[in-house]
Amino acid sequence: MKVNRENREWRSNRMYESLHYTQEELDLRDQARAFVEEEIAPYMAEMDRENKYPWKQFKRLGEMGYIGIRFPTEYGGGGKTIVAETLVNEQVGRASIAMACARSVTSYVAHAINEYGTEEQKRKYLPKMFAGDWPAAECLTEAMGGSDAARIKTTARKDPDGNYILTGEKRFQASGGVAPVLLVYALTDTTVNPREGMSGFIVEKGWEGLHTARQFDTLGYRGLEVVSEMVFRRVKVPKENRLGKEGDGWPMIVSMLNGERTIICGAFIGSAQRCMEIAAKYSSERIAFHKPIRKWEAVSFKLADMAVTLESARLLNLQAGRMIDRGLDATKEAAMAKLLATEGAFEVIHNAMQIMGGIGYTTDYSIERHFRDARNGLFVAGSSEMMRLIIQRDTYKELLGP
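Now predict its structure.
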């Protein structure tokens, strides 16, 4: 077949995109992008500047069906896929990674409730979460247990009535300062390996003994209400609020991780894509030494590298999402996508700022905000070092056997 290299319009239309996505997915992406540009993006600078949670925008995401998009329709979800949710998160990430995180962390908690919860728990919590009324937060990380999550010290001990008394401290809960619903991991059996003795609990804000000690003042993710110290002082948790069986905590975490990494990758890819677009436009208009700076290879070659990085990350992440949707183990693929998407996004945004020069360092453009938010990608949902650990482990197994 002869290729007409003079006509490259196909690269910017749906013929090219349909190689990877269905028509339904492309329609969803376009609808989400239009919504985000009109109702989310205009408010993200204020969210960052005022450091206040975006309640109105979160509610609108719920009303549009973008929070519970991959969950069963019987609980108010959209009944779609990980790939569909990742596409939506990419569009939200174009406006703000922090806003995308507010959306996605509620989805992660919903996943645990949907997979391990009772019918009563699902009907009580999921519809309000999906509607945008109840943002949720995941309470796993502790001061001495970050990547080594099995080192948590928070305990949940049964009282004579079969309820649980929750004692301990958590940190780094995105949306933790405002979320009415918390998914808390604690040890129900301290005599065994923590991976066998950990359980999950649904905890509601306002219960006696639950205190938010203070909130971090962070470089990025501003307005996300990232809690630095959440203290549980003998919080009584009804036995009906245990999620799954005792000891299900670790499998619950593992079941979420691949999807979590794939979905959050979308946000970083979207953020970097938006910054690349801003830099491309600026470099076409900015004149230096009698011609647009895009005509200088020192600039245009940066854009070439940025395009390669983003397209590679997007396709690798799509592969991981397709595998998860088909019920395949995507541990290695999700780790590879997460590593490339987050490190790549940070590099792309850095180069976009470099192309812009000093003006890119100011709040006249959103690149500086995306830059600050993107730095968190190198440790959120598992650090880059942990991703490399997973990748090398699974690669050695594939090459040399167990």
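The mean pLDDT is 94.
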